[in-house]
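Batch manifest, entry 17 of 40.
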Amino acid sequence: MTGPTVIAFWTVPASDTALAADPDLASALDEQQYYWAESRTALAAAGFTPAEQPGRRFRVREPGRTWRFAAAADSAAIGYLLVRPGQPACVLYRLRHPDELLAAARAFFGAAAGRGALDCARTDRETFTLDSRAVGERRTINVYLPPAYRASPEKSFPVLYMPDGGLEEDFPHVAGTIDSLIALAKIPPVIVVGIENTQRRRDMTGPTTVARDSTIAPRVGGSEAFRAFIRDELMPAVRTRYRTTDETAIVGESLAGLFVVETFLLEPRLFRRYVALDPSLWWNGGELVRTAERRLRALDARGRTLYVAASHEPEIAADAATFAAALERHAPRELDWRFESRPDLEHGTIYRGASPAIFARVLR
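Output type: structure tokens
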């Protein structure tokens, strides 16, 4: 890769029946591919290198850096990757007209040559850092802004928070899923705030008395400090930087799912909607499951939603089912909750495989 490159990518569901069942999605794919055909000539004439990567997965390599994209089996993504050697890439989703892509490319690559302001974040994403006292380090935050955020400056928007929110973690596919659902009118516009990991196993786990748990990382048991970072530092910063409503949600998978469940049980008023995918409820000998009845009885669940989904991973599925049984018996009547067993999915595929339908239900 030697010069400014614009790569179009799109994926379609692996199942033809899934695509046939959603005419809006089929129309959006056709429209974006039509726009791309028009855009190639204009981009080449402007001195850019147009390329395309249709399919479920692709990589873009350049010296010292690899950009990866992977889509779920029954989801779709449509977008553009702007790459300039040695610099961060810009990812744009579902531009509405070829002229928008050309304008974005000119602004992005023009900034690289010192001819103008970098304009990538204006259409899609931003990144900022916070020096945190709670966790004692600088944290990187990635933000997806829906198209309506720029188009409707008088409006405020709900926020979906996500651990594992780095650009090399789950943020790109979650932002892409949210963008697609917004474009298809499955959910209202939502801001996504991704928290990039530093010491994941420290931040996502609570205290433990199980010796084996302490062997997974040099430091564990830091969830209280991480929650304080979110509550006292990150959320106020997001409210200051962006136009937000008090509608907040959090999503996490595996250890991040454990953190979501723990936060729901210990501090249910922090978020309004909680989504835990394959939560690692085995932590500390299943303490959250064992104490669920007591905690649920004392829970202030007014206006709260909890969605738990589990793959066929035996230990995780068993603990999640036991937790769901506790919810069935002891959840407050005002709690909107749902447990979904997904034996068709694996631990490594449940995030991408289950999240589109769950987001459509929880964030609508």
